Amino acid sequence: MSRFAAVAFDLDDTLCRHDHDVDALYRRAFEEADIDPFGEPDQLWPLLDGPPDPDDRVGYLGAGFARLAAQHGRDVDPVALAAAFEAVADESRVAYLPGALDALAAAAAAGPVGVLTNGPEDRQRAKIEALGLDDLVDAIVYAGDLPRRKPHAEPFERLTAALSVDAEETLYVGNSLSYDVAGAHNAGFRSAWLRASPDDAPGAYAPDHVLDSLEEIPGLLAEGPEADGGESGDGAAAAEAEEDR
């Protein structure tokens, strides 16, 4: 018996990632905008300010292109370049992360399964369909279409209502500390942080569980309720390790 009555997942960089040829996509954006190319994708990503803004992805990318253009001494319209990048991107070009399908199967064996994404349905629907997630989960909440997104509690409350479960019995798995972990805690969920690197630490956040791969989900769910013990589990150990650094 699993310690959780239900499991829910973030979508981007938790269950799936883009499967584009990023270099080709980058060049096509310059062609679409009729701008001579400069820089490389690996130079652009660090210049973006935090997670994408679901309400203004063009402005979000445009700010990064503006910084990159300044570094290369180029006078261009960064918003036009960002709009071109968005125009040539294919949201259906996604692939599951390693262990995602096994994690979804293990979650389904434990109880209802949900997906909660901060993106709006008109952007995320293509990913859901490409992955066949409709057949694998019981509810999907698109927080980008709600008045408030993660880390606010409202999207999580919508999800528990759709799954007919209690928040404190639900595990939420996501890759973002400030959106997924913080939001899960605000809503009374248990949280599992999928970190990008074993060297990453939770800092001021305290996820209940820290994962290096979705391949760890079946083992986590297989542990009985007595394994929880009312403690913060892996999150507490990770926080202590960070304090010792």
UniProtKB/TrEMBL annotation:
Q: Which UniProt keywords apply?
A: Hydrolase, Magnesium
Region called Disordered, residue ranges: 216-245
GO-annotated molecular function: hydrolase activity
> GO annotations under biological process?
small molecule metabolic process
Q: Does the keyword Cell division apply?
A: no
Q: What are the names of the required cofactors?
A: Mg(2+)
Give the InterPro entries listed for this entry.
Answer: HAD-like_hydrolase, HAD-like_sf, HAD-SF_hydro_IA, HAD_sf
- Name the domain of life this protein comes from: Archaea
Q: Which Pfam families match?
A: Hydrolase (PF00702)
Instruction: Write out the similarity annotation.
Output: Belongs to the HAD-like hydrolase superfamily.
What is the official name of this protein in its record?
Haloacid dehalogenase-like hydrolase
